[in-house]
Design a protein that fits this description.
This protein is an alpha/beta fold and 351 residues long. The protein has two domains: 133 residues, translation initiation factor eif-2b, domain 1 (Four Helix Bundle (Hemerythrin (Met), subunit A), Up-down Bundle); 211 residues, Translation initiation factor eif-2b, domain 2 (Rossmann fold, 3-Layer(aba) Sandwich), CATH 3.40.50. 42% of the residues lie in helices and 16% in strands. The protein contains eleven helices and 15 strands. The strands form four sheets. It has a seven-stranded mixed β-sheet, sandwiched between helices. β14 and β15 form a beta hairpin. α1 runs parallel beside α3. It is globular. The mean pLDDT is 96. Bound molecules: 5-S-methyl-1-O-phosphono-5-thio-D-ribulose. 5-S-methyl-1-O-phosphono-5-thio-D-ribulose binds next to α2 and β9.
Length: 351
């Protein structure tokens, strides 16, 4: 299966997701700043995948810190972690993974001195990656049990192997259900403006021989009205304590449409995506990206000069529109706000 992030100790290789599906090429990052830049520039994207890359970025900062006197080393690590975690603001997995590796590195610095810090940070970053793949398989298994025979599944953006350590969250559900012979078609929303659905989801599903049909985002309502969708499953960038979900722009629209047409609408999200320190979706920071992403298409202008663009990268789907949140620990069913702590329990502390 395709690997979005490859750790090679002296460098991190990131599959350049801007080039897919045309070209398969990796960007080499030799220090934490280059990784932070690659996260900002969407070389690597998807909540768990940027978390994994962020974790390795802290490991690279730890290697630099190991050459410094302890007080400077601590400061260096703290500043690096801040820079990495702020590369993209919405997906909580990034700050969660960065803090996890920072904590391991700082502890090692205190107990073992500079010699221990590199190994400790690297070990923790590797754990973040390894756990993610395991978690996705569990999500896939739980989610597949919700998929009816012959299902036509609609998904948005890319919540697959490319967006995670492997297998995917929403696409983990699709993969497992496909392996069980239950999927007749996957519909991938194109996902304007960045085309994660058309370029990435369609590509990675075809790599695995899974049937896929791409549609423009605005065709989803018509497809549902015709009775062409049995289930919607999407990923998440952050889940608030009340079950509101931040995910790729357009997710909220899909959830409204699914409600109107009585189609189950599921969110697949690992515990690392839950932010128990945030009360509701309105407190989740929403990244706004460059206007040029909307005003041009592959370098060609698609709007007259002088037109402005509104380009939020994510939106908030209220818990009331969600049929269930599929996690590695179980499916959170409505009433989501009430059931969320029962499934999450003490497994997840604040991010
Ligand atoms: O801007 P992106 O491509 O990073 O947005 C990705 C998404 O919205 C995904 O659905 C989400 O991160 C979940 S990935 C398992």
């Amino acid at each position: 299966m395709v690997q979005a992030v490859i750790w090679q100790r002296d460098r991190l290789l990131l599959l350049d997701q801007r080039a897919l599906p045309e070209r398969i090429e990796y960007v080499q990052c030799g220090n934490f700043r280059e990784i932070a830049r690659a996260i900002k520039d969407m070389v690597v994207r998807g909540a768990p995948a940027i978390g994994i890359a962020g974790g390795y970025a802290v490991a690279m900062a730890a290697a630099e810190a190991s050459q410094m006197p302890p007080s400077l080393a601590r400061e260096h690590l703290g500043k690096a972690a801040e820079e990495i975690a702020s590369a993209r603001p919405t997906a909580v997995n990034l700050a969660w993974a960065v803090n996890r590796v920072l904590k391991a590195a700082t502890l090692a610095l205190e107990s073992e001195g500079p010699q221990g810090v590199i190994a400790a940070a690297e070990r923790e970053a590797y754990e973040v990656e390894r756990e993610d793949i395991e978690v996705n398989r569990a999500i896939g298994e739980r989610g597949a049990s919700l998929v009816p025979e012959g299902a036509r599944i609609l998904t948005h953006c890319n919540a697959g192997a490319l967006a995670t350590g492997g297998y995917g969250t929403a696409l983990g559900v699709v993969r497992r259900a496909w392996e069980q012979g239950k999927v007749s078609m996957v519909y991938a929303d194109e996902t304007r403006p960045y085309l994660q659905g058309a370029r990435l989801t369609a590509w990675e599903l075809l790599q695995d021989g899974i049937k896929v049909t791409v549609l423009v985002d605005s065709a989803a309502g018509y497809l549902m009205a015709k009775g062409g969708v049995d289930l919607v499953v999407v990923g998440a960038d952050r889940v608030a304590r009340n079950g509101d979900v931040a995910n790729k722009i357009g997710t909220y629209t899909l959830a409204c449409l699914a409600k109107l047409h009585s189609i189950p609408f599921y969110v697949a999200a690992p515990l690392s995506t839950f932010d128990m320190s945030i009360e509701s979706g309105s407190d989740i920071p929403i990244e706004e990206r460059a206007e040029s992403e909307v005003l041009s298409f592959f370098g060609r202008p698609v709007a007259p000069e002088g037109a402005r663009a509104f380009n939020p990268s994510f939106d908030i789907t209220p818990a009331s529109l969600i049929s269930g949140i599929i996690t590695e620990k179980g499916v959170i069913l409505p009433d989501i706000a009430e059931n969320l702590p029962k499934v999450i329990g003490s497994a997840k502390e604040g991010a």
